[in-house]
Predict the structure.
Amino acid sequence: MKHTVLKKSAALLLTLLCLVAVLVFPAAAEETRVYDPSGMLTEAEAASLAARMDELSSEYGVEFYFATYVAENRYDDFYGDDYCTRVQNLNGTDAVLLVVTYEEFNRTYYYNMYTYGDANYDINQKEVNYILDDYDVYYNLKGGEIYDGAKAFFELSATAFEGRLGAPWILVILVSAVIALI
């Protein structure tokens, strides 16, 4: 009798500990840097991109995330903020998110950049525009080469945190001087 009560108590305690672990640490179970329910990336591309994003996150202290979405009609829309609060819970995190949307009704790719926490201040609007309009980012993402475009996007985003994004000032000065002399 005493042995049965001890077994039941141990089982109850173990169940409670598991329940507490699931309630306290739910984000760890669902966190992913690459969220691709649309299947725009191969498994190898997703793994490679996630590994590079891990490296960049460690190096710059900012989290990098990627998500895809397929819009089936003109009114179907993806909101990066919704992804961040539901899937990643990025509010309060210094993070950069790239969202690529494919609209089936007009066979077009769209993409957008979302920043959270201090990343809002570390990357200014001019740098955001530079990243989104970069040749490798723009033409790869718009052309459906999602892996290459995302890779270029995250490399440029990391460069923005170094403060080295855009044309070097010396080059701008030299070109201006040459034009002035002509």
In short: The CA atoms of residues 49 and 151 lie 7 Å apart. The chain has nine helices and four strands. The radius of gyration is 22 Å.
